[in-house]
Amino acid sequence: MSTYRMLTEQEAVEYARNIPDLFPANAKLTSREIGDGNLNFVFHIQDEISNKSIIFKQALPYARVVGESWPLTLDRARIESEALILQGELCPGFVPQVYHYDIEMALTVMEDLSAYEIMRKGLVARKYYPNFAKHIGTFLARTLFLTSDLALHPYEKKKRVASFSNPELCKITEDLVFTDPYYDAATNSFNPLIREQAEALWHDDAVKLEVAKLKEGFLTRTQALLHGDLHTGSIMATEEGTKVIDPEFAYYGPMGFDIGAVIANLVLNYVAQEGHASDVQERESYQAYLLDTITGIWTTFEAEFRTLWAEKAVEPSAAIPGYVDDYVRRLLQDTLGYAGCKTIRRIVGLAHVWDIESIEDPAVRAHSEKLALAIGRELILKRESISSVEDIADLISDTHIA
Ligand code: SR1
Ligand code: MG
């Protein structure tokens, strides 16, 4: 019989007290539920004497944002804990440290990152993160390359594919990213001022065909262990540091899905700045920074990925001349396609982003939303004609709406 129960703030304190070596015996613990995400409880637990603090993340047997009518597997907590531990080994310092996890209670006990800020909030406030492109490019290269067939024995890789099978969370992505935005789905929600653009998308056969191919990749390819939901709300940052959190959507899928997710969320902030920054010069210089960041992410990713390929590949075909170039070229195209899908879903699908939702005037917001849809469409349709990183920034900045 399962011993799962949803923790209260007080029960979280008692649970924390019983984890060996976490807090001193005389600790005076307080607990606050601080979760504001779509799915889980998050408790901040602090010892008032030593000031030491930790985070408890507990999965609920349903999606918090909707309620009990949307049941959801507790196994996502195991996947999240194991993904965090593995990512921490592959790319030390870039994810919170896991102190303890309890499969029955669907609970992960981890490092408190209160010194960091959710990156999306910082981007809305036009903060600059000078190390971010290097950090996330490195994180992506290491976690993707080192969990792929390029770096693992095929038995070990297939064992991991099975262990990170995550069908319920994948189904959310399949529906919300690849299916629902492209027809009049009940779950969709959008600004009434962009109904014409939403309806045009539902009848856009060229885009729908390309999205079907990208969805096929998401459904069938087990290229690497993905984070699976790598938006800027899953990244915590300071000017110096970067931490990737929340890999509960982790599964074996196409590498470009993770890289594309980061790029899409920078694109969403880029279009949102049209509605946030009243000073044109300030807006343009922040948008230029966002484009430089996108370029920097890919440049770092590619350099690190090629270095890992040269130094750590165990797959015999890795030595075939021209293979790495072809692999990287296809990866860039996948990345752009998935970036396009992840941009569009945040405009017409169920779950939106604060970058755009925080633009109060619906007419001003509609401008940013239409631009996001147009850029998303270009990324999807033009992805195969893009072969260099410089073309990405041009594609974004050259897209305009009437
Ligand atoms: C009901 S879950 C909605 C979205 O939140 C998560 O962060 C994922 O992006 C998911 O699609
Ligand atoms: Mg999340």
Quickly list its features.
single chain, 402 residues, alpha+beta, Phosphorylase Kinase, domain 1, 2 domains, 14 helices, binds 5-S-methyl-5-thio-alpha-D-ribofuranose, binds magnesium ion
What is the strand content?
5-15%
H-E string: HEEEEEHEEEHHHHHHEEEEHHHHHH
- Share of helical residues: 40-55%
Number of strands: 12
| Superfamily (CATH H level) name of the largest domain | Aminoglycoside phosphotransferase (APH), C-terminal lobe
* Ligand inventory: 5-S-methyl-5-thio-alpha-D-ribofuranose, magnesium ion
SSE class: alpha+beta
Lateral arrangement of strands in the main beta sheet: 1-2-3-7-6
Termini Cα gap = 61 Å
Overall spatial form: globular
CATH class of the largest domain, please? Alpha Beta
- Main beta-sheet annotation: 5 strands, antiparallel
Number of domains: 2
